[in-house]
Design a protein that fits this description.
Largest sheet: none
Oligomer: single chain
Number of helices: 3
Shape: rod-shaped
Distance between the termini: 82 Å
Radius of gyration: 35 Å
């Protein structure tokens, strides 16, 4: 999808000639600029490739972040699990001594 930029060559030539540029040079500049502005910056296929690369990169980053978060969470929860298990065993021992 090409979206050309509106460019008034006559106004551009007038601006350059008013600034002291010879008319032939001003016309050459205007033609060159008009040609440059009429070319597409990126084709639809270029954008599709870029989108696919960006999605792949984002998916990879998501997987890395998820793995890192899971590792961090496991490291932080490990002591809690240890003490929870220890307290559960102590309660079982206490209840066994009280009722048996």
């Amino acid at each position: 999808m090409t979206m050309p930029i509106q460019f008034d060559t006559a106004q551009y030539i007038r601006t350059l000639t008013d600034a002291g540029i010879p008319r032939e040079q001003a016309e050459a500049h205007a033609d060159g600029l008009r040609l440059a502005l009429s070319q597409p910056v990126a084709a639809d296929s270029d954008l599709a490739i870029q989108r696919a690369e960006m999605r792949a990169w984002l998916e990879a980053m998501e997987l890395r972040l998820e793995a890192k978060m899971r590792t961090e969470l496991d490291a932080r929860l490990r002591p809690i699990y240890f003490w929870l298990g220890t307290l559960t065993v102590m309660q079982v021992i206490t209840m066994t001594k009280l009722f048996f």
